[in-house]
Write the structure tokens for this entry.
Amino acid sequence: MSAKQEKLAAVLTAAPVVPVLTIEDRATAVPLARALVAGGLTALEVTLRTPAGLDCIRAIKAEVEGCNVGAGTVLDPRQLEEAAAAGATFMVSPGGSPRLLAAAKDSPVPFLPGAATAGEAMTLHEEGFTILKFFPAEAAGGLAYLKALGAPLPGIRFCPTGGVGAGNAADYLALGNVICVGGSWVAPADALAQGNWSRITALSKEAAQLGK
């Protein structure tokens, strides 16, 4: 395993769940991140699906202690460079195009590319990526499919994301080839709208105990 993959493994094994956060405004980012970290979830994926994404990464990086803030939905080399400049400590993509993989190899920031099939996983493994995002997890075959990949692909660990929630996260975490899971259920939209940080911390605490 390369040094970058080891660094990524350390980030992803710090807690069983990586919150996937799509944040609409910078003012929400810091209290949200602090609430999640207070509950024990320390690797936070801030998606670049909103115009505020990069600003949120910068704010969390500067103001929230005890967490690794990553950039999610990284789709091209430009976004990868911008996220690295904003302070992201890991990158996540739903897939892995040749241009994006080449840029990721040149970047000092660890990269978690996505795969939905055995062929995609094998191709990424050949490129040196031993930890992959399994996305969209439920739509791509769920628990049964991911379990089936374990025997033929023993050198790959997955972070299933997409349709993973409080009801099935523990089942995914019980699989031997799962390093952690990603999900948004720990930061529900109504709690964000209300600024109900105590509820988010409570959900984070519950999630942090999964798989133990």
Remarks:
- The beta strands are 17-21, 43-47, 68-72, 91-92, 111-112, 114-115, 131-134, 157-160, 181-183.
- The chain has a mean pLDDT of 97.
- Residues 135 and 161 are 5 Å apart (CA to CA).
- The radius of gyration is 16 Å.
